[in-house]
Amino acid sequence: MRREGIALVLSAPSGAGKTTLIKRLLAEFPHFGYSVSCTTRQPRQGEAHGKDYLFLSREDFESRRARNYFAEWAEVHGNFYGTPLEPVKDMLRQGQDVLFDIDVQGAAQLKLTLDEAVFVFILPPSMAELERRLRGRGLDDEATIERRLNNARREILEARWYDALVVNDDLDAAYDALRAVYLAATMAPARNPRLVEEMLAR
Ligand code: ADP
Ligand code: 5GP
Questions:
Q1: Ligand 2: which residue has its CA nearest to atom 15?
Q2: What is the predominant subcellular site recorded for this chain (predicted)?
Q3: Of 3.30.63.10, 3.40.50.880, 3.30.429.10, 3.50.50.60, which CATH number belongs to 35-95?
Q4: ipTM score of the complex?
Q5: The predicted structure's pLDDT at residue 1
Q6: Atom of ligand 1 nearest to the CA of 171
Q7: pLDDT digits over 88-100, tens only?
Q8: Lowest-confidence pick of 152-156, 191-195, 197-201
Q9: What is the reported pTM?
């Protein structure tokens, strides 16, 4: 029987560097499927519909939610976000590993529904550095930055139930840690069911 893919679920307070780390991971492991979420927030500069997100109106989002279109959904920083269920199920069923970039509320929902999921929380080195990065990114207005910082403490307290914590201080070190968590998951005995028998037979 073909094994299911690994669901690698990444959460972080906004500005911690999750997008930066995900870009690196997808560049090194292009076989990853990416779970493209739906959102009701406005696209930022450089974001593409269908690649970064499906950008939906609130009405469209709510009608999909009512049809159980989402594996999980949550309201984050005043907008709705949700993971379309079918594409993810298809990729995992075909043995493809899938990366999820979702908030702590959504991750908690996925923990109840996805087998073989690995949950990684990316921490900034400090709250002061988180604020510096949010401002330095230059993507959000002042009110949005304030809202994101207010949410960050609450989100970070949820990090305790994740499988792994990665502190994104030095980017290279953080990436090495994230990569190690992923590679360890690929080596789990459950994912290599015939390895032991085949070795003994040689
Ligand atoms: P997120 O996706 O978690 O909101 P981003 O990846 O957009 O965060 O990163 C937020 C900002 O911090 C960006 O300007 C990014 O270049 C910067 N950044 C990311 N990682 C580091 C790091 N290790 N050291 C310094 N700056 C970083
Ligand atoms: P941003 O607006 O900065 O892209 O994302 C804001 C937050 O929403 C991030 O914490 C991101 O992980 C989260 N997010 C993105 N997509 C989803 C999703 O499909 N479901 C949930 N629950 N959160 C999401």
A1: 102
A2: cytoplasm
A3: 3.30.63.10
A4: 0.96
A5: 43
A6: 23
A7: 999 999 999 999 9
A8: 191-195
A9: 0.93
CA of 39 to the centre of ligand 2 (A): 8
Q: What is the mean pLDDT of residues 95-110?
A: 96
Superfamily of domain 1-33+96-201 in CATH is P-loop containing nucleotide triphosphate hydrolases (3.40.50.300)
> Atom 7 in ligand 2: which residue has the minimum CA distance?
103
Q: What span, in angstroms and rounded, lies between the C-alpha atoms of 124 and 17? A: 8
Is 23 annotated among the ligand-binding residues?
no
